[in-house]
Amino acid sequence: MDDTIQSAYQEEEQRLKDTMKEVDQQLAKLQSVPVYTGHDFTEQVLEAGREERRQRLSKSVKEPYFGRLDFEELGTGSSKPLYIGKVGVDREEYTDQPLVIDWRAPVASLFYSFTGGEGPAEYESPEGIIEGLVYLKRNIVIRQQILERVADTYNRDSDQPAVSDEFLVYRLGENKDNKLRDIVSTIQAEQDRIIRAARNTALIIQGVAGSGKTTVALHRLAFLLYQYKEQVSAEKMIIFAPNNMFLDYISNVLPELGVGDIQQSTFSDWAMNLLDLELRLADPAETLSYWFEGEGELPEITEEVPGRFKGSIAFMEILRDCIKRMEISSVPDMDFSPWDGAVLPRAEIVKWFEEEYKPYPLAKRKERVMARVHRWIEMELKKAPSAAVLKEWKKKASAREKAYGNKWPKYEPLTLYKQIFKAAKGASPMPEEAVSQIPKSVLKSTALDLKNNVIREEDLPALVYLHVLVHEVDGNQRFDHVVIDEAQDFSPFHIALLDLFVKGHSFTILGDLSQGIHAYRGVHQWEEMSSLFAPEYNDYFALTRSYRSTMEVIEFANTILEKGVQSGITAVPVFRSGDGVRLIDYGQEGREASLKKAMETLIGKDYRTVSILTRSLREAKAVHERLRSEGLEVNLIDDGKKQYEGGYSVLPVYLSKGLEFDAVIVADADQAHYGSSAWDAKLLYVGCTRALHELWLMNGEDRPHYVEQDNDEVVVEGWPE
Ligand SMILES: Nc1ncnc2c1ncn2[C@@H]1O[C@H](COP(=O)(O)OP(=O)(O)OP(=O)(O)O)[C@@H](O)[C@H]1O
């Protein structure tokens, strides 16, 4: 250790001791106060405050901070060291400087946004812009109260003043376990801008594979909860992710950031729960296997493919049109007569429905009208001249009231949806003219599905929208903020629909068009989503640096995009070099033995997570079975999987999206499995970009043209020595 580093280390060791002592003292003092369990409201509030502090201090005591920033606010004449941690801790005695500053506090933003240079730096505080000079930016690793590492990424007094990536590269080089982790100590400036962006905007983020989209979204939620404590609550925030296993994979980050209770769901689960249907959704595996494992030619993806059409704003408008027209003709075309001689004119009922109850949602209006009809009957019954007549009238009224109610439309989403698809045959109250805009192929396939009581994921936006059109969105169904991960697989209809459920267009929408392997339902351009919002309500960010993989893996994957997709957005690597991407021919050893040998070799290198990616689920199952039978402890990941166990896995490439592994083996990287289409190239791209440290591609037949073979700096041929 040279002298400067040694003295920095000693300084930080002393500071750590002092900090822990103070945190311990504060904690001990709080713990000595008996927990209040009584009914006095004021005492309860005080107890809640103490409990919150107890939790914060207990969290802080193990790793109180991870960074230090020496900053001199302009005009103050002295620089102060600010220690930044996952949770803020005030000093026991009030001073203007906390013991540890929460990473989400305005001043802490400098720790992330400062990118070097002699000139003044600034941050935005509630009082306005604060300017000053940064003297030192230091990363500090503390584990279980032990100071492990001190690394200066900027020092004004040193001859290398630029902010260095060294600490980031050290962090990225670590092996990963089975869960995504927080990145508070190394958030990059481009990510910080997104995390701290204003709340009431639909943020659309195009980020290359491994650029930290998922991670950034989770940190943004923690930031919003801190910054807008009074306006937002965790229970009213939701993250939509592609499947339950992915939700499990990301489930550690928010608790690590001290945030709980945020809702996490797939869109399907959320929609099915809201709709409360008796029916079950058709198994999405059917659709996946059609698109990813079909033997024959797949249809061209046009706007008329069911997934694309049912996700379009055009479809949303057709539904709105249908319900509007149905609304006009809702009141049955007849006067209501409970028994001969008594008549409630239709005009009167129309007045109730169209004027008096207009502010209510459609379904409620019908309910109110029917309740009023009932009250009218009761008044009329009072005119009965005798008990016998009364009995007779009551009997008739009861039957006719029921029959009259049945003449009203049924404001129930599935019934309405079925009627829309029946309208083409003229067999429903829905306007044929509106329905005629639905492409014939969609009409036919959906009508058949609905006849068989089958609903698919792609029908859910429509069903929820119909629900909204007739019931409106209940106050307690509204969100303060919505995060959509892997948003390239969502449709404009999904977003427009969710916009009805979120206050102030408060969205974080993240995805990567280059990973758009579900193009038969997802968006092809971000404008499809951004155009749904007025310019002042949407913002677009691009993340181009990839933090996950080594330079070799990224350069290799970029070539797949350049040669195989042409329009793909390529990634810029962080300067982290590793082994070349290995290309291995199964050769004489054959496929099964080679895959086993590859897995064993990589496991032998002490990686914590290694995966074999196959082209189809069928192949994944076969490889998994074979490896298990030969004594290798590997997990199979299929689309029903709810938990991500980490370790060694076999899975089809299309299910690997969003995940990452220390080492990845792509099985069958040949032309028979990855054809010449852009779609196939995207699939291979997704697979390759899952690798953090090592990527091996194995093949029997010829490799696809977009696989880089001749660049010695990026690829190596054959087995390792
Ligand atoms: N600033 C950072 N510091 C350290 N690690 C980071 C940083 N940003 C991202 N990472 C790491 O990079 C990896 C990729 O992050 P993440 O999964 O959030 O990216 P993504 O953009 O959602 O990826 P993909 O689209 O490929 O699924 C994770 O291991 C994450 O911890």
Automatic annotation (TrEMBL):
- Which residues, by range, are in coiled-coil regions? 6-33
User: Its Enzyme Commission number?
Assistant: 5.6.2.4
Q: Which residues form the signal peptide?
A: none
Q: Which UniProt keywords apply?
A: ATP-binding, Coiled coil, Helicase, Hydrolase, Isomerase, Nucleotide-binding
| InterPro entries from the UniProt entry | DNA_helicase_UvrD-like_C, DNA_helicase_UvrD/REP, P-loop_NTPase, UvrD-like_ATP-bd, UvrD-like_helicase_C
Q: Say which domain of life the source belongs to.
A: Bacteria
Mind telling me which Pfam families this protein's record contains?
A: UvrD-helicase, UvrD_C, UvrD_C_2
SUPFAM superfamilies found in the cross-reference section: P-loop containing nucleoside triphosphate hydrolases
Per the database record, which ranges form the UvrD-like helicase ATP-binding domain?
Answer: 186-550
Catalysed reaction per UniProt? ATP + H2O = ADP + phosphate + H(+); Couples ATP hydrolysis with the unwinding of duplex DNA by translocating in the 3'-5' direction
* Enzyme type, top EC level: isomerase
At which positions is ATP bound?
G207, V208, A209, G210, S211, G212, K213, T214
Quote the protein name from its UniProt record.
DNA 3'-5' helicase
Provide the species name. Paenibacillus shunpengii
Species classification = Bacteria, Bacillati, Bacillota, Bacilli, Bacillales
